[in-house]
Amino acid sequence: MKKELRSCTACGEPISDKFLLDVGGCSWHSACLRCCICHTPLDHQPSCFLRERQIYCKTDYAKTFGTKCVRCSRTISAT
Ligand SMILES: [Zn+2]
Ligand SMILES: [Zn+2]
User: Fold this and answer.
1) How far does residue 75's CA lie from ligand 2's centre (Å)?
2) Most buried of 34, 37, 44, 63, CB within 10 angstroms?
3) Ligand 1 midpoint to CA 16 (Å)
4) Distance between start and end Cα atoms, the chain
5) Where found in the cell (predicted)?
6) C-alpha of residue 34 to centroid of ligand 2, in Å
7) Cβ distance 65 to 77 under 8 Å?
8) If you measure from the C-alpha of residue 28 to the centroid of ligand 1, how many angstroms do you get, rounded to a whole number?
9) Do 55 and 33 meet the contact criterion of CB atoms below 8 Å apart?
10) Ligand nearest the Cα atom of residue 7
11) Mind listing the pLDDT tens digit for each residue in 23-61?
12) pTM of the model
């Protein structure tokens, strides 16, 4: 059975196993797994967040989707 290369969710190019990362059921080149806001590479980060096929670092995910204080607009972390 022919093994098909999976294509990268970010750039659409096929990925060889060596550079394949699997996050949230999607495939990514290790080089393409970057936060869509601050462009920090996330392939060596302990956590990253996937939303609508966009990757976010923890900080930007919290900033973008976290609950913000109406008064000071800083993110409120759930504890
Ligand atoms: Zn890619
Ligand atoms: Zn970021």
Assistant:
1) 15
2) 34
3) 11
4) 49
5) Nucleus
6) 8
7) no
8) 6
9) yes
10) 1
11) 888 899 999 999 999 999 998 888 889 988 889 999 999
12) 0.71
